[in-house]
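Contributing new records

If you add data, match the layout below exactly. Sequence lines come first and carry their own label; structure lines follow with theirs. Keep one chain per record. Anything else will be rejected by the validation script.
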Amino acid sequence: FYDDDPLEREPPPVAVTTVKSRSLNEYYDFLRKTFSTPGEELRKEGAVPPAGAVNTLGEVPDSAWYRNRDVTKMSLAELVRGPGDDHPPEPPWTVVAGKTEGIMPGLIIRDARGRRYVLKFDPRRFPEIASAADLIGAKFFHALGYNVPENYLVHFTRDQLRLAPDARIVDRRGVERLMRRHDVDDVLAEVRPERNGAYRALASLYVEGEPVGPFRFHGVRGDDPNDIVPHEHRRDLRGLSVFAAWLNHTDAKALNTLDTIVEEDGVRYLRHYLIDFGAILGSDSFEPKSARGGHVHWIDLKPAAAQLASLGLYVPEWMRADFPDIRGVGRFESEVFDPERWRANYPNPAFLNRLPDDAFWAAKKVMAFRDGQIRALVETGEYSDPQAVDWITKQLIVRRDKIGRAFFQDVLPLDEFAVRNNRLEFTDLAARYGFIAPRTFQVRWFRFDNHSREKTPVPGASFEVPATLRAPGAYATAEIRGTDPAKMVDVYLRYREGQWEVVGVERT
């Protein structure tokens, strides 16, 4: 341990010099992840390393990737505000380009203050489904700690849109040309107007900085001196698999990320964003999510082989799931949901390398959301049918609890360690949330040599820190066990300025 452990935030970033903007082909990414395993996927050899980008407590420090946000201390107003609500697009809106990336067409506009937004629309047959999901997703992932865009639900009429004389679009033939008025009309023709004739859309504010393309879920970026932990081993990306399972973010892939160059205190560095949440919950952006979404990869040989071997008689449980016919909801449920078997559309290297302590880190953040907070976030989707809010809220609550039950049982789920009145205290999260009855634990004490890392046993069977360990600059270890001998937690203490402080946590 070093004097400044545990780190709450990473050191200030090193300035980047030359950063090459990069693009990623969706088909190439899908095929590569489906038929090979980029990065270090060592699970088959039983050699997946512990997560990096963590402090000595096993927590993710604040960085250009992640910022700790404690939802238990956030007001509903702060939670609902999300990444920001101070910059809705102000009329008049000027169309400066057509959006041709992604499944659904859209428009890029500039508002009266010169700010740029991407206007995304719902599919004509399924109003509200994608715009609500995208807005709700950004707010949830912001609360969970990630960098995300500011999203706004907007309602506008055709005459509010002006066309910039230099606006450009890539047409269906792949040819870039000047936009014409009918190009705007063609986009709006794919959108179902509301009863008053207005159009509903999601306006996503351009994120801060100069975009330089997506980040990958494996390897490091060679032109970023701050990027030193392979992405498949970052805890904030491994744990993202749990958050994606909760919100059914089956489209969690590199193409839905973005790196930008930002400048703070005269230092240019890369900030990393998650973007595009139109395919979460029951939405698949352009239609309701398939019933298989979240259960199997797009190409998954095992269920295909089972179907073939049974001549089609084998019907997996997810095929028998019930989904309500509620406007804007799509296919989203909790009864069949299995957090340990949840799958994105295709393999993600960081998700494949998730270890039990990565899942525990994420699960305790999911469990921190209270029922009322979940409902308040769902309500921001502005569903016209109140049944939609009721249904989605209920499913998220059940899925939340399933995540806690599943991932708290893989480790000894003790947390919130502190020394008070010379006694080591902590919380059993499994008992706090009612998954098990309150239980007792045993402790063994050790003197810890911070240089050799050797542990020397000392007498003491209670959670009172033995007096023999007390000395300026001394370190001690409490080895805590429950009834399962395979699971334990080592808590490291440091004696400084006349008191013990928790400096490290290690889970087995």
